[in-house]
Amino acid sequence: MFEPVIAPSGTLLGLLQRGRGDGTLHALAAPRAEAVEALDHCVLSDPRHDWQVENRSLYYARLYLDLDGGLEAIEAHLFQADDHLDTDETRTGLALAVLGHLASYGRDDALHLLRRYAVSGSNWAWALDELALRDDDSGLHSLALPVLARFPATAEGEAELAAAVRDAFEPRPWRLWAEDTREAVGSRVRAARERGSFDRWQRQLRPTGPRPGWSVQAVFDYAEEGLERGVELFLPASRCLGAVAGSDDRDVIIEAARSGPDGARCTALHYLAESRDPVVLDLVEVAAADPSRTVADAALHAFERMCGDAAVDRARRWVQRPDALGGTAAGVLACRGGAQDAGLVLGALRETVRAQGPDARLLWTLVDGAGRLGIDAAAPVLRHVYRETASSHLRGQTARALAATDPSFATGFAVECLWDCEETTREIAALHAETGDARVAERLRRLAADPAEEAEVQTAVRSRIGDTPPL
Q1: What angle do CA 91, 93, 95 make, to 5 degrees?
Q2: Which of 123, 225, 334, 450 is the most buried (most CB within 10 A)?
Q3: What is the CA radius of gyration of the chain?
Q4: pLDDT digit string (tens) for 176-209?
Q5: pTM
């Protein structure tokens, strides 16, 4: 999947792509045709950097309802010829999820599109999962024969059917079809379910892949073999090392961490860090500058997982470094530092935004640290990250930090956050938004009555709903 192109944050398209609450508010105030066009663009060209973490589908579905938007653009996108050429589920996943939410709101046109796509689309399994949550039994029964027709009555086809049944995210359709009295449906699905259960049992009984022997060198060899196959096994190998290593193996492990091959060296660094061996911090400092990116990254990862005063003290020494180790040290202070480290965390936060922009990976840790340490002086840079980041997940973390550091949050961003695409952000807003604002009172009531809203958000809303003044 190509990296999405995100429009500037001050435009309607940019706001909608980010999933900001202001996107909904601006779309409702914009000319309807312009708003629907921008909304269609977002749904057809998924703007998320990580679709497994960030939410957009309910946000966009609600906006389709508010705008009374048609589904012609989604229909054309789903059923174009490219659907059978580009079968990556990220091409159609967001559109199908939006249709699922619209179907739950009673949009029959969305329900019919999902049924059509389950019959003929390449990403049919996703559509079937959406229907499993929203369609009635008769609608699902009508799909049994078309879906089963995808799997030829051959040994290979039956194996593919068993895998589809076994791996289905929502099992409801398959359970219904297993009870079907038709021989071509019920018997076939029951056989596929039995075969899938047997396959799962076999995998559990006979796990595949190499396993380390019961010696320190065998564990190092296991990590090295994994690295040669392109699989990093340092963490499981370090746990195995913890089971087999004795006190007389310490010198061998330290030597491996200092100059062993990459797999053994990374494993040893993780093991020594987890056991808080006093020598590991010096070894991490050397390894972090190693020409091997694998070793350097493993050293940083081992250090950021360390707990204890020694790691925090060393982070205070390293935080001023201009390299990756300095950034990791700042993250350690953000997570485990004390009030005396607020200035160092604030400095790292400002420098990271200045040098790497509002989507830098380190910001996830630094933003949380600013909130945890209650750094009031961080509010201006946090507001900048909130406005500009393309990650709705990072924006939600930033909203939480602003709630702890910015006195204006309750009457400012918290109001907008009630319309945000992330349920955790809406929950923060429900707990903090100033209820004297008429928009807040009405939005809280709407969220409380919306059956599609998450339970945590509605719990937060109900904790405040008694405080809302009458309209």
Answers
A1: 90
A2: 334
A3: 27
A4: 999 988 888 888 889 888 875 545 545 544 555 5
A5: 0.89
Answer for the pair 300, 260: CB distance below 8 angstroms, yes or no.
no
Neighbours of 278 (CB within 10 A): 8
DSSP class of residue 4 equals P
The two three-digit tokens of residue 61, written as one number:
């579905």
CB 413 within 8 A of CB 386: yes
- Residues 268, 252, 220, CA angle at the centre, nearest 5°? 45
- Are 13 and 36 spatial neighbours (Cβ–Cβ below 8 Å)? no
CA 100 to chain centre: 20
Both structure tokens of 194: 């039995």
Helix (H) or strand (E) holding 283: helix 280-287
Spatial separation of the C-alpha atoms in residues 432 and 328, rounded to whole Å: 32
d(CA 188, CA 198): 15
pLDDT for the residue numbered 246: 86
CA 46 to chain centre: 14
Do residues 141 and 176 make contact, with C-beta atoms less than 8 angstroms apart? yes
Report how far residue 248's alpha carbon sits from residue 33's, in angstroms, rounded to the nearest whole number.
74
The DSSP string of 317-337 is HHTT-SSHHHHHHHHHHHHH-
- Spatial neighbors of 406 by CB under 8 A, at least 6 apart, are 376, 379, 382, 383, 412, 413
Q: Give every CB contact of residue 194 below 8 A, 6+ residues apart in sequence.
A: none
Q: How far is CA 295 from CA 141, 284, 364, 411, in A?
A: 55, 10, 23, 48
Query: Is pLDDT of 279 > 70?
Result: yes
Residue 255: how many other CB atoms lie within 10 Å: 13
Structure token pair of residue 155: 């040994």
Residue 264's H or E segment, with its range, is: helix 262-274
Long-range pairs for 27-35 at CB < 8 Å and ≥24 separation?
27/63, 27/66, 27/67, 28/66, 28/67, 32/67, 35/63, 35/67
In this structure, what are the phi and psi dihedrals at residue 34, rounded to the nearest 5 degrees?
A: -65, -40
Angle at CA of residue 122, ends 64 and 149, nearest 5°: 120
Contacts of 397 (CB under 8 A, 6+ apart): 364, 367, 368, 371
Task: Assign 3-state DSSP to the chain and report helix, strand, coil percentages, each to 5.
Answer: 70, 0, 30
